[in-house]
Amino acid sequence: MYTEQYLRSFTRDVFIKMGCCAIDASRIADVFIAAELRGLPSHGMIRLKDYFQLWKANRINVKPNVRIVHETPSTAVVDGDGAVGMVAATRSMEIAIEKAARVGTGWVSTRNSNHFGIAGFYAMMALENDMIGMSMTNANPLVAPTFSITPMLGTNPIAVAIPAGKEPPFVADFATTPIARGKLAVAEKKGEKVPFGFVQNNTGEPSDDPAILKSGGSMLTLGGDYVHGSHKGFCLSAIVDIFSAVFSGANFGPFVPPSVAYLPVLDTRVGEGTGHFFGAMRIDAFQEASVFKASMDKWIETFRKAKPANGREKVIIPGEPEREKEMKIRAEGITILPAIVKEIREIADELGVEFEAAG
Amino acid sequence: MYTEQYLRSFTRDVFIKMGCCAIDASRIADVFIAAELRGLPSHGMIRLKDYFQLWKANRINVKPNVRIVHETPSTAVVDGDGAVGMVAATRSMEIAIEKAARVGTGWVSTRNSNHFGIAGFYAMMALENDMIGMSMTNANPLVAPTFSITPMLGTNPIAVAIPAGKEPPFVADFATTPIARGKLAVAEKKGEKVPFGFVQNNTGEPSDDPAILKSGGSMLTLGGDYVHGSHKGFCLSAIVDIFSAVFSGANFGPFVPPSVAYLPVLDTRVGEGTGHFFGAMRIDAFQEASVFKASMDKWIETFRKAKPANGREKVIIPGEPEREKEMKIRAEGITILPAIVKEIREIADELGVEFEAAG
Question: Does the structural domain A179-219 have CATH classification 3.30.60.50?
Fold first, then answer.
């Protein structure tokens, strides 16, 4: 068990040792720790090794010049200059927020970036400014479009954060697939099958084998099969890809570069790096802030009152499960699996950073 | 079989007889006919009766003052003044496009409107201006949030239209449920069951009964059940509801007024009428227009090349099936079911408008 403060400081030190400036290293650490606190360890400390290996392979730029390359009063394209994704993403969302402060909304598409961690982090940056935040990213191709067997899309998440008044904010943060990639890995390690509707084999037949991606299979889009609306999940995933990469000039679809160093850089590129998309909207661009917040409170209270199904405790208000986890993990500390602790210690040793045994 | 021109002119005459000005009546007719041409007759001529009855019940305003009630350079809230939805929506999307022309993007949330037909129509208005268009609306509550049995949301569609160059545009237009309401009605009439994952009964158990809504059942969100990501579909539907109604001051969730006169006006209101949300983004707010279009062409060509699954002909590029239907229906004419023709003739007789027998 580690405290939030300890892991944040350690992660910052690791990225400083890799050559990042203190501000960038802090930004990166904040996103890593937010993933752990929100109960999404698949996007937390486990990813340190991926970034460390990308750095050793010279595939990330620790001294990036993240900059606007095109803009209008309400939009910008940002070039991440090969930065750690969290650095390019945090700066891009700040630009969206600055633009929203001036003209009501701000929209930023970012190219030449890398894996940015949890999408919800950037959407939630808007909240303290009384703004609605949005964030999405494309990612390594694992997912086949409806009626196809070729992995063309990532799990391409969408996050939307909306402030309320007395109620905590509405925070949706979800992959445009039925499940995250990590759940397949967990089932495989446990020797379990997965429900049909998550993956298909190399001819497009339904499969319950979590290891099917290793033999030419692919993940399915939200909806699962065509009858259940997988083409709608494909639309969503495609929209994320286009907003993130066609808008910015990043690599789209099957050309998105791998976020791990053990996969080779692709021969074919159609743009630069990974792409993201961010949005910020001032709530008082639509309603007086106090009216907006009271109305969101009423929305949340109304949905909270929906009658639970038999055997269910309550309706899930988006953001509530993660907030409950965050309170618990903040109080109890962050658990890192022994295998991950071992990996982190090896990285720490190699970089000459101290890493305590869990307390 | 009717020609597009005939039905457009007839529909315009019907709304003029109800008291709409010629411009508004033309706008309404355009959306009705677009639904027929795109192979979505559930949103076409079949809805004439609903609007006629709402008009007779004095529940729509045929002389509306559709106006901006709040704005920033990139946003507006529009009050539809109880207009036919197509009138409020077309004007709102025009405002989004005007704002995008000036500051890069325009975002409009609309209250005090009614059923607006197909969402895709408004998103596609952006295309001829070299803009990306977005459109969404809330609707009558039929859909239960994950883990709940209370219908709280409509089938809340999202439409996104993105221009390409040589390729036709990307047009996604989908309900945030596995299926549209109309498919349940069709299955019920045929005496067929529906696949599990569409609806649940009044305790939240899975059901295959298309008539279950009449006995306390509800529709499910995209994803179907929690294991398959229905909470993600709920997030999407909730986002549509909040952007359409909390932003604008329309009725949200269970308070959305019925779009048919045979259902009573609700006792409780939390805002005015039905809500919509529209967006327009200039493509050159992100990339030079020629670069953007070439890049979208490349995106579409890339996805077209995805290998089809066994037994499937090709990948569905969003917008392609509707475009193919439109070419066919334009050439062959629009078929109206005899029962609908009968309804239309009754309306025509009552209003004193001529309506030909199908040619």
Answer: yes
